[in-house]
Amino acid sequence: MSYSPVIDYDNLYTASEKKNEEIGTPIFYVYIERGRNRVHYLPFTFLEHQKEKLRTLPTLRSQIEIDYYTRQFPLLDVKLIETMIFYYGVKQDNTAIIIRYEYDNQKKFYSINQKMMKSISMTRLKLN
């Protein structure tokens, strides 16, 4: 994933998939709380063709998936060891979900903080 700063904002970026060294269409807005070492991923768009990105919630357990999200964290001044990632998505039943991932340095992967996992009804948002 490649991160590009949003003009006039110190902590706001767009995140795009990178294929064959080419940066693609943005898929997330990313907000960085540097002082608290937190990264927030919010879907870039709620358009119909982006529906799968909203519903595909990362596990952040395999090294490949962790690298996909975090490879450029040092360039964003984010420390992997102490990071919390907040992911905002939409479940299959059209409820919004906020998931907090916390990095476990001993296990070398992120675990989901079950207390923070929240669902919010989104009856006005149609993704069917």
Describe how the helices and strands are arranged.
Blueprint: E1 2-5, E2 12-19, E3 22-33, E4 38-43, H1 51-55, H2 63-70, E5 84-90, E6 95-104, E7 109-112, E8 118-121
Parallel strand pairs: 4-5
Antiparallel strand pairs: 1-2, 2-3, 3-4, 5-6, 6-7, 6-8
Q: Looking at the structure, what is the overall shape?
A: globular
**Per DSSP, what share of the residues sits in E-state strands of 2 or more residues?**
35-45%
Rg measurement, Å: 15 Å
Residues in helix, %: 10-25%
Question: Which regions contain 5 or more consecutive residues with pLDDT less than 50?
Answer: 120-128
Query: Gap between N and C termini, in Å?
Result: 27 Å
Number of domains: 1
Using DSSP, what is the number of strands? Answer: 8
- Give the integer mean of the pLDDT values: 80
